[in-house]
Specification:
The complex is a heterodimer. Chain A is about 35% helix and about 20% strand. Chain A has 11 helices and 14 strands. In chain A, the strands form 4 sheets. Chain A has a 5-stranded mixed sheet, sandwiched between helices. In chain A, strands 5-7-6-12 form a 4-stranded mixed sheet. Chain A has a 3-stranded parallel sheet with strand order 3-2-4, sandwiched between helices. In chain A, β13, α10 and β14 form a beta-alpha-beta unit. Chain B folds into 2 domains: about 325 residues, 3-Layer(aba) Sandwich (Rossmann fold); about 35 residues. In chain B, strands 1-8-9-5-4-2-3 form a 7-stranded parallel sheet, with helices on both faces. Chain B has a two-stranded antiparallel sheet with strand order 6-7. Classes of the chains: A alpha/beta, B alpha/beta. At the A-B interface, α3, α4 and α5 of A face α5, α6 and α14 of B.
Chain lengths: ~325, ~375
């Protein structure tokens, strides 16, 4: 069982998808000869050739629009947006076609495509390279929004999205942790159900809910709270923010009675807003304290010399957790 | 180094076969089989009469807002003729003629424009895309289809229909560029009908012919008399043949005129003169084609009347069939979002149906 970073795990999933199904094609800017600006597609052009690993002109709308045509034809395109901040150039294709084609054609034409893109801050990048706007896609009917938090689930979720999920998936890759740590990734292809959250740490007194890159500070906070303060903390990794696994969230909060939701995306109408609403709808009678949200603020993502205080760290999570615990 | 002409290897040609009085240029006449010519005439007439019927129904409240296509029948029928059923066709929202030719039933089109999602259901046996409302956004999609054909092999082609207004959209430029780079077997049929709602061609762009757009992206381009069904058929056939030979895309500017309003929701008198409309009446594509057919002895006035009567009957039957199909199935608005409906959506569907039943019970 090899130890892989997240970037290598994504590469492995793409390699496996290309090898298992000849309907799979990758397209994007600099993904072929250059092997991706983050090296995600390393080795794939050499192995599968330019008809399956397609370097495109610099035109996001045509990349996504082209992928719509490919999916309509019966291929399984996996377009890459170089950064999620560039996706707005193609957003209309998502709104006009990707999310609507199955409905528009009464089920005749589905969109088996996975739109991959790195998201999130903390890499000292220029403007438009650090945003977390998953809520936009979670808000769009017809889309599925998946965000892995580590190498093993990234590989499994991506492989599932490409090979076993016939509807369009927006796949956010937490670029801050592309190379941050390694995990054992099984040799055999592994699949995970889309729309199912995971309880990654069990506890009885407090539920922390997060996904993607902020799972690390969340888990760090849980560990500290347990070790330093003796609190029994449960941690949920959502993995998919649309659909959202209400059942897992509700079951946990019914048990603990206390919850904090953590994400880097903006607070207003963010994923946390939806999580809180579902807790209130389904577990209000069990709540011992108000729910807290630890999120990005409702401001333009700060330019990189001032990004640190905007980002989520374990201290911010612990601070909110203590307020909830001491209520 | 002197300044000199840089040869880009492409020029814009203009093609017209039937003159305005319906006389054909014998050397250019594509010499289509008689049965084909009569079928083309029938579909052009059907397209026009469906338009007239729908405008009437819209005025009576039986039809929603839609985009009539009177005057553009030759573009539709001429361009769709060279396509095989396995080829891909991507219509605009004013492509009724071509859609009828491809096998869309009249009652299906009526359902669509009366506001039933069921009307979007694609006909069996052809590779058609649904029409697209957001201008130009379907053009990159057509290129993706073409790239897929190249990937899988075979000699299918893609015909995509859009208008002069769409030519200003970034998506169309991106699509032309992609198609040229990947030699996608796509025929870009730009139907220049003079106006994008109220904005005339002269205010839409700074070029004399939209065919320059194709040239600009590096593909063969042709300007065609869009009210000449023979020229449309010949031009599209040439482009289809080129695509089947894996020689890449073609851009066709079909110059025509929208005789009616943009949609039933606007009044063209606000933005164009009656005099301009009258000028184009003289170039009516059906009249010209009928003159040609008569001159070849394929059709006479009695024959035209007979075809028209048959079409009227067909429309009447289709309207009754449409009325029977236009029954609300409230649940269908939820049913086609995902292959497997997520539980959170299933819960909303139950809520929606319960509310409907409640309203029904209360007689609302």
């Amino acid at each position: 069982m090899p130890e892989l970073t997240l970037v290598k795990a994504v590469n492995r999933a793409l390699d496996e998808a290309l090898s298992l199904d000849d309907a799979v094609v990758l397209l994007g800017q600099d993904i072929g000869q250059d092997e991706g600006v983050f090296r995600v597609t390393e080795g794939l052009l050499k192995k599968y050739g330019p008809n399956r690993v397609i370097d495109t002109p610099l035109a996001e709308a045509a990349i996504i629009g082209g992928a719509v045509g490919m999916a309509a034809y019966g291929l399984k395109p996996v377009p890459e947006m170089q950064f999620s901040g560039f996706f707005y150039q193609a957003y209309h294709q998502v709104e006009n076609h990707v999310s609507r084609m199955r409905n528009r054609t009464r089920g005749r034409i589905g969109m088996n495509m996975v739109i991959r893109m790195p998201y999130g801050g903390g890499i000292r990048a220029v403007e438009h390279h650090s945003e977390s706007r998953e809520a936009i896609y979670a808000h769009t009917p017809g889309l599925t929004m998946v965000i892995p938090s580590g190498p093993r689930n990234a590989r499994a979720l991506l492989l599932t999205s490409i090979l076993k999920y016939p509807d369009p998936v927006i796949f956010f890759e937490p670029k801050l942790i592309y190379r941050a740590f390694k995990e054992n990734v099984p040799d055999e292809p592994e699949f995970l159900p889309i729309g199912k959250a995971q309880v990654v740490r069990e506890g009885t007194q407090l539920t922390l809910i997060s996904y993607g890159a902020t799972m690390r500070p969340t888990l760090e906070a849980a560990r500290d709270l347990a070790e330093d303060d003796g609190v029994s903390v449960e941690v949920i990794d959502l993995l998919s923010v649309a659909p959202l696994d209400t059942e897992t969230i509700t079951a946990s909060v019914r048990k603990t009675g206390r919850a904090v939701v953590i994400h880097e995306g903006h607070r207003r109408c963010g994923i946390g807003s939806e999580v809180v609403a579902r807790i209130v709808e389904n577990a209000l009678d069990c709540l011992e304290a108000p729910i807290k949200r630890v999120t990005g603020y409702d401001i333009i993502f700060p330019y990189f010399s001032r990004e640190a205080p905007y980002l989520i760290n374990a201290e911010r999570v612990k601070h909110a957790a203590k307020e909830v615990l001491e209520y | 180094m002197p300044r000199k002409t840089f040869d880009i290897g492409l020029v814009v040609e203009e093609l017209s076969i039937l003159d305005e009085s319906g006389r054909a240029d014998a050397a250019l006449d594509p010499k289509l089989p008689e049965a084909t010519l009569l079928k083309m005439h029938r579909f052009m007439l059907l397209t026009r009469k469906l338009d007239e019927r729908m405008i009437m129904m819209q005025r009576q409240g039986q039809m929603g807002t839609f985009a009539p296509g009177r005057g553009q029948e030759a573009v539709q029928i001429g361009s769709i003729l060279p396509l095989r059923s396995e080829d891909w066709y991507s219509p605009s929202y004013r492509s009724f003629g071509a859609q009828l030719w491809r096998g869309w039933t009249i009652d299906q089109l009526l359902l669509l424009w009366a506001g039933y999602f069921e009307g979007f259901g694609l006909p069996e046996g052809v590779n058609d895309m649904p029409m697209s409302i957001v201008i130009g956004s379907h053009v990159p999609v057509a290129v993706g289809l073409g790239m897929s054909i190249n990937y899988r092999g075979g000699d299918q082609v893609v015909l995509v229909n859009f208008g002069d207004g769409a030519s200003s959209e970034g998506d169309v430029s991106e699509a032309l560029n992609f198609a040229a780079v990947y030699k996608a077997p796509v025929i870009f049929l730009c139907e220049n009908n003079g106006y994008a709602i109220s904005v005339p061609f002269q205010k839409q762009c700074g070029v004399r012919s939209l065919a320059q757009r194709g040239i600009g992206f590096g593909m063969p381009s042709l300007r065609v008399d869009g009210n000449d069904v023979l020229a449309m058929a010949a031009a599209t056939q040439e482009a289809v043949d080129r695509a089947r030979r894996h020689e890449g895309p073609t851009f066709i500017e079909a110059v025509t005129f929208r005789m009616e309003m943009h949609t039933t929701a606007d009044d063209p008198k606000v933005y164009r003169s009656d005099e301009e409309v009258r000028r184009w009446e003289k170039k009516d594509p059906i009249m010209r084609f009928e003159t040609y057919l008569k001159s070849r002895g394929l059709l006479n006035d009695a024959g035209i009347d007979r075809v028209a009567a048959e079409i009227e009957e067909e429309l009447r039957v289709a309207r009754d069939r449409f009325a029977a199909r236009a029954v609300q199935r409230p649940e269908e608005v939820f049913d086609f979002h995902y292959a497997v409906m997520p539980e959170e959506l299933a819960a909303q569907k139950r809520e929606y149906l319960a509310d409907l039943q409640q309203a029904l019970a209360e007689g609302k």
